[in-house]
């Protein structure tokens, strides 16, 4: 994607490889190539993250599909339902502070490309977190259904393969949140400049990123507890089956032993009777 949109790629200001930022303006391409893009607030931006989120700035609703089409051409897979959210960014050069927050919006004294990156990183993480929460909610509901069935019947019919698949799904969701989304990796831009750190921390608090991950972690612990319980039940089933197999084999062995003893005793008795008859 970056190779096909080189003229629109914003040069990175950090070592992060989790995203690319694209800038679109109404200036001719030959002027844009010289680095003249005009005011940031008058340009369109698209920040695309490798874990599947895309954050669009200054793009009208009727233009969104055109920009998303650029991403879809390079996507490895599409979700059945696209999740989206809106957040307003206002620019006031005469603002006394660097930023000021409000309900569903943030006011910046100066909107620059690093601000776009920082804001995009938090919004992208928030949308990705929504997706993973929905995935874990499906797991929780599935185990809730299993528990309700066990409450009625006293047993469950899930096989070991299905349980292993659920274990893999739960673990992969947690790993993706931590590794791919980088939920606990602080933005390098925010590390370097307190102005961006303030924006970063404000937005994470506004979107309750830490609290939502805490809820996600709690649900995953519920899933983990259920998995351990069901694994023990399946293991006990296998142990019971092995015990019955051993009992069955011992029974067969005893039957064979008794049969051989009876056969040998009968053979001796017949031989003795024949000898007596001959005598």
Automatic annotation (TrEMBL):
Pfam families: DUF155. Signal peptide: none annotated. One of its GO terms (cellular component) is mitochondrion. InterPro entries: DUF155, RMD1/Sad1-interacting. Residues 46-216 form the DUF155 domain. Belongs to the RMD1/sif2 family. This is DUF155 domain-containing protein. It comes from Citrus sinensis (Sweet orange).
């Amino acid at each position: 994607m970056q190779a096909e949109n080189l003229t629109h790629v914003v040069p990175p200001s950090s070592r992060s490889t989790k995203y690319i930022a694209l800038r679109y303006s109404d200036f001719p391409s030959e002027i844009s190539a010289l680095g003249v893009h005009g005011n940031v607030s008058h340009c369109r931006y698209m920040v695309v993250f490798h874990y599947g989120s895309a954050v669009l700035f200054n793009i009208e609703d009727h233009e969104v599909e055109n920009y998303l089409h650029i991403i879809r051409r390079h996507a490895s897979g599409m979700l059945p339902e696209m999740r989206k959210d809106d957040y307003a960014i206002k620019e006031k050069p005469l603002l006394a502070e660097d930023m000021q927050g409000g309900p569903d919006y943030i006011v910046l004294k100066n909107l620059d490309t690093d601000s776009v990156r920082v804001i995009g990183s938090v919004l992208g993480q928030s949308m990705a977190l929504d997706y993973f929460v929905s995935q874990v909610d499906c797991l929780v509901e599935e185990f809730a259904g299993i528990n309700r069935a066990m409450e009625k019947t006293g047993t469950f019919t899930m096989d070991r393969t299905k349980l292993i698949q659920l274990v893999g799904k739960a673990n992969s969701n947690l790993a993706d949140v931590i590794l791919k989304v980088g939920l606990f990796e602080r933005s390098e831009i925010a590390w370097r400049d307190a102005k961006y750190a303030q924006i970063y921390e404000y937005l994470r608090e506004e979107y309750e990123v830490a609290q939502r991950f805490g809820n996600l972690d709690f649900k995953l612990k519920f899933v983990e507890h259920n998995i351990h319980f069901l694994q023990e039940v399946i293991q006990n089933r296998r142990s019971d089956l092995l015990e019955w197999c051993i009992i069955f084999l011992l029974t067969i062995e005893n039957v064979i032993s008794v049969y051989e003893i009876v056969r040998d005793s009968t053979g001796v008795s017949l031989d003795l009777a024949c000898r007596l008859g001959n005598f």
